[in-house]
Amino acid sequence: MSPADPREEGEPDGPVIRDKRRIDPETYEVREPKETSAPGGSEPAGQPGQPVGAAAPTDQPAATEQNGEVTELKTALAERTADLQRLQAEYINYKRRVDRDRDLVRALAVENVFRDLLGVLDDIRSAREHEELTGGFKAVAEEVQRVAGKYGLEPFGAKGDPFDPHVHEALMHVPAQPGVTAEAATGPVCVEILQPGYKIGDRVIRPARVAVADPPDGDAAAEAPGQDQQVQDQPVQDQQPDA
Question: Which parts of the sequence are annotated with region: Disordered (predicted)?
Fold first, then answer.
């Protein structure tokens, strides 16, 4: 190469064709523009009035806007978390209420069935008292009572129990009976069980139908033996025969 040739070493001979098309004809993709370096060095030129290599000043409005967005996101997150916690509490309460209502409906269904069977149980009791519970009828009666006990049905009511209007229904009122009415009782006492009561747990299916008597009067009870003793202690006067 002669000194007059302005081309540098490594450059091809002939015309140089540079493809400046933005879309690659083979891949049909947009080409990225090539970055041009500042003349005389590889470092990019700084902005006018700013030294090359100095850090750009912080964009205060952009930072303030970003902080505001973060605050809004935190507030929205707290609200959504509170909503989820409230929904969870409502669901737990709803589930408990459904379980309680389910148990109540089941208990009421069992009670209604046994209310219709109380007449059968009364007939079984009457047949047993009259010694008529024999043969196949006895086996059926025992099975009915076994199933009733399986579901918690219990009879109650006994002679001598204090009268309780919550579990007893008084059908008769009779005078106090010695040996049956306790002298230490402070109120009416059941002296006869006309029909036993039935309950399931604490729920009374039918109150016991009873005859009641008031407790004996202590003063009257004390006077009666004294009078009898006075009659017994009185001497018998001999009658003189008439002349």
Answer: 1-72, 209-243
